[in-house]
Amino acid sequence: MSPRKQAVVLQAPGAFRLVDHTPRPPGPGEAQIQVHAVGLCGRDRAVHLGDHPPENVRFPITPGHEWSGTVTAVGAGTSASLIGRKVVGEGLRNCETCDRCREGETHLCRGGYEETGFTHPGAMATTVTLPARLLHTLPPDADLTAAALLEPAACAAAAVLKARPLPGSRVAVIGTGAVALLAVQLLGTSSPRELLVLGSSPDHAGLSHRFGATAYGTWDRDAGPSDFDVVIDAVSAVSTARTAMSLLRPGGRLVLTGIPARGAESLDPVHIIQRQLSIGTVLGASASAWTYAVRAFSTGQLTPLALLTHELGLDEFARAMEVIGSSGPGVGKVLLRP
After folding, report:
1. Above 60 in pLDDT, residue 227?
2. Quick one: how far is CA 142 from the chain centroid?
């Protein structure tokens, strides 16, 4: 870990450097946060490799949209009571005034795409400055290392809110990544009769049970259990959507998260209509999903720390990119520490 004030800057795809970091004072309505830890995901790697949609990246950029920290300064019009508070923050910078924002669907803002770590400097730095309205405060005793995993938890919360599980439901989740397992943990709070996780390898059974699964199996679109009330596909691989749909009872609910892989198999509309299935989709997290995740974390219902496998310094950014690209059995969530 480096004691210097530094930041990672991506000059262009494949070109990054570690630079001296000068904290940006907060302007009106903003807050400055001392970054405790910043998480990495496939989107960060996509930006680094040049695989992210170019219209959604503004080079040069300091990445980092999953983070936790402590407020150190606030700008005009922002309550000074925030100073010293432990916080996490939403990445999408919604306009608050369009019809989607006013309906609570802030992740569908019509005001144009703006996101911390992609179009605005992110948290792979000693400090990050952003609108204070995007912050979610945490209890004084909150573990900031665990809190750095709340961004994928908010995405998981969005899927669970869309799924609307009832007590006693039979629920299945396809996937064993961060969003999938955090969704499993949140689904467990609704007292399901059965909570099945389907992964790609038997090696993931232990962690799945640790996050609340009552059963584990490997997914196969041609065989397996069925008659589930709710299924969440948190993989979005070539055939997982079809697998997920085949698990549902008539009238069941399917939630698809993320962007499907290229060549993904299509869903048969006749099958959907005849079985009267409901299909929802999730990409990102609204303010309400963030609130749900933060409350679950603050009350001990969401404990994401078991997902963490690597903690590195900012000066190990290149190694971190290699780790998340390896997708090995011992690779979970990776955090950088300024």
Report:
1. yes
2. 19
